[in-house]
Request: fold
Amino acid sequence: MKAVIIEDEQLIAKELQYKISDVAQDVEIIQVLPSLKTAFKWFMENAEPDLIFADIQLSDGISFEIFKRYDLKCPIIFTTAYDEYAIQAFKVNGIDYLLKPVDSDDLTKAIDKSRSIINSKAEYPNDFHQLISLISNPDSLKNKFKEQFIVSHRKQWIPVVVKDIACFYRDSINFIYTFTGEKYMLDFATLEEVEELLDPKQFYRSNRQSIININAIQSVKPHENQKLTVSLIHPLKLEVDISREKAPAFKKWLDR
Reply:
């Protein structure tokens, strides 16, 4: 796959190139575009690439202007430092994003999804007018979050209110842990499905196995390798690891 990076910070662009080459050897970066001006010129003079990685805020404007001007059909993966509700706008609109600093696992998943779209020749949902509207009005997203989950317990179905959930945990199947220590099996295929239903200001996807409620955090222990270990409150007695790549974003999420 031939790909283009739209990024105005040279060091970030180089780091992204390195990570792409590490996780997806079939992706060839054919051009790095550092501004709207250079991007406008490049897309006018060159054929559309297979894939685009685009920062949102460039030195001379917002990258959405590129995609409003040119009717590009290829998948676009945004790299962003936007707040949580804006990120939810990407999810609602079906457009992929990577939160800076870019995590290698998230990068792999985004590229795999784009590869599947390219191979199936499916239409990619590049509706930037809707996306800009959602980002401009984050309150419109709040009613999209799930308020409770139905779980099976002793041959009955019972509702578990989201605010009572301390964490979601995957161990072959998905489980809910409540603040009072109850554990329920959750009938969802993946944690990705669960994550999209939750308020990102309240819940954080800490790793592949867990999503944690900010109110369930008792302490955070930093390690020399820059990873973090999060201890959850009693009676859960659970510890959750945060990777070195995710640690800065997690700290920003926690420090509000």
Remarks:
- The chain has two domains: 2-141, 148-254.
- The first strand starts at residue 2 and ends at 6.
